[in-house]
Amino acid sequence: MDAEAVVSEDSCPDKKRRVHGMLKLYYGLNEEGKAEEEEAQSLDPCDINGPHFDPEHFLNKLRRECSLAELMDQETCMVKQIRSLDSDMQTLVYENYNKFISATDTIRKMKNDFKKMEDEMDCLSANMSAITDFSARISGTLQDQHAQITKLSGVHTLLRKLQFLFELPARLNKCLEMQAYAQAVRSHRLARCVLQQYSHLPSFKGIQDDCHAIMDKLALELRQKFRDGGSSAKDLSECVELLLQLDEPAEELCDKFLSHARSRLESDLQGLEAEIRPYPSASAVKDASVRGLSSPASTGSPAASSPKASAIFSPSSNTDILEFIDRGCNEFVSSLCLVITSYQELFVSHAQTGELASKNIPEMANAKLHAFVDDLAARYFSLVERRIQEEKGVGDNSLLVRALDRFHRRLQAVTKLLPGSSVPSKGTEIVIRAATERVKQYLAALQSFYMDSLTDVRQALATPRLSVASASVGGGGGPSGRDGPNSLPELLSSLSASILNQIKSVLASVHLFTAKDITFSNKPYFKGEFCSQGVRESLVVSFIKFICQSSRQFCESSGDKGGSTPPALLLLLSRLCLDYETSTISYILTLTDEQFLVQHHSPVTPVTTLCTEAREAAQKLLNHYVKVQGLIISQMLRKSVETRDWVNTIEPRNVRAVMKRVVEDTTSIDVQVGLLYEEGVRKAHSSDSSKRTFSVYSSSRQQVRYAASYTPSVPMDTNLLSNIHKLFSERIDIFSSVEFNKVSVLTGIIKISLKTFLECVRLRTFGRYGLQQIQVDCHYLQMYLWRFVSDENLVHFLLDEIVGSSAHRCLDPAPMEQSVIEVICERG
């Protein structure tokens, strides 16, 4: 059932189209509803749908050609078509019944309305005919007097003009007394041509002379009023306009107008200049910058930052920069725009119409106006730049940005009033210079902040440095240093976080220059060069390079102890630079690019270059740290060797104190480096690493070396044997670069220390007990130092060299028994 309904609904539109097509075909209509007069007409009389259809001929043809069954089928088909057409016709009538009724009512109403309209038209036609007759009678009556009336009207007009001329002097005097200058000039201009034309007549000549005298007096009063300058802008404009109408020289009027306007504008500039202080001294600016950014690591709480940590307060001033710009815009710029408008209306717009159009005033007036505006605008810009230079503090940047935005926005009015003026472009240059200078100030502030932070870190390291060293005993002084209030990880974290927060704060302040609600942010400079070169390169990249360069400068200090730089600071800075190379630089530059939508149209410093520079700085700092710490221990060893009489010394009973101090300092360094760097990779240690002294110092090489004194019958060159042994030993690079781990750092320090010990031993002469003391000291060092290095064989080799050299320099080389050495070292 549903399927049949769907089929019937689908076939309904097709059925309607077919029915309408048949009706159109029956009535002879084409697709547009017009008669098929232009189409080819069929002449076949048997075409039942054609216009030439002949029923008799059609029936005869059917009877001849069709059988009875076919005739019956044809009749049935025709009956169906007739019924279908009748049905469709009734359907159309039913569907359009309301339309037929409405059309009938409309036609009936139209008949009534047209009947009423016909009556009104008949009445109107009768009235028009009566009017026409009446007008014709009046024209006929006045025909004789028309010429006389026209003549009298002309005479009356002439008499009124003559009366105006004769009354003109009195009228002008009265206007002069009432100060109605505009009306006087207007009246004189109406009569001037007539008086000039008939000046040969005595009566008109007298009137003309009187008028000239009165107008000269009026011009004198206008010039006096113009020179006084006490009138309003509207009165002044009216005065200039009247003087131009009185044929005053336009150039002289331009100069007088601009001179009068200059006096007012200069008074505004003097008021602005009075608000500007003299240039601050360089020391005052430096003190303000130093006070503005606090250090991140204050004593006792490195991570705490005071409220002044992110602000450098501007020097005190009577008015802030925004009030200064507001006053300049509301007074000077507004007055300048008013002067430009009035001047153009008087000397440019009016001069292009009327009698002044032929005097070429606009070109001259425009040239004078441009020079006038450029001169005063240059003075105003110099005052603005002086006031901007007073904004040395980089705390709150919003006031400066709002002031520059208002300054730039108000100058756009000059562009509309004076096309082609260079004032707006010069104003934009001031904004650009101010933004660039602001970036430089922020860079200087960041640099000052960083140096102050390092100073505070050095102060924080000074106190715990002694406590850590004193508390760090041979086995484990680390916990004392690690639990201190100013441990290296805390200082590093505080320093890194404070620098990063300061950079974010500076970027947020600089980002105000590119805010969407700032008019000059749409300038190409602030969309491109300011973001890429100004902020990214000149600020962020320059500050990162400054950190690396200033850190490398700590490695340039000279002296046996590495200068005045604390070794802990070198270690901390090396870790800081390494962290920057690992992640911080990439994070800062990504943050800058996203925040400022940096588009690299011009070449910029790639991240890899900065990371390489930071890694080089970290490597140099760590190498210098190793050198400084090695030199400190080497100094102790050198003094201990040089200040002792090794020939006449007593038999050793204990380890020298300096060796204990060396082990303690090495342990303290190990703890210190372990706070910032990972352990590193060591080679596998042997099970008897701490007890290899005997085997090392009683090696076959030494036995051969000592054999010369015991068996003099067998001559032997011990130097030759030593050199041969060195050829087959692995070369040790004492001052090679270290890796970024604790083991490598300690290995470098121990290599420097033991190499110094070796060279000092080679310069001394030893007795029997001196040699034995060196054996005891080296065995003690061997017991502890092998734990800190990456390869214990390195310690064994250097200590072996020390004992061997001392034996070679010994007058009576009688080594101590290994068991005795071990007892002395274990006893301590």
From TrEMBL:
It is found in: Golgi apparatus, trans-Golgi network; Recycling endosome. Coiled coil: none annotated. One of its GO terms (biological process) is lysosomal transport. Its main location: Golgi. Keywords: Endosome, Golgi apparatus, Lipid transport, Protein transport, Transport. Belongs to the VPS51 family. Component of the Golgi-associated retrograde protein (GARP) complex. Component of the endosome-associated retrograde protein (EARP) complex. This is Vacuolar protein sorting-associated protein 51 homolog. It comes from Champsocephalus gunnari. The lineage of its organism: Eukaryota, Metazoa, Chordata, Craniata, Vertebrata.
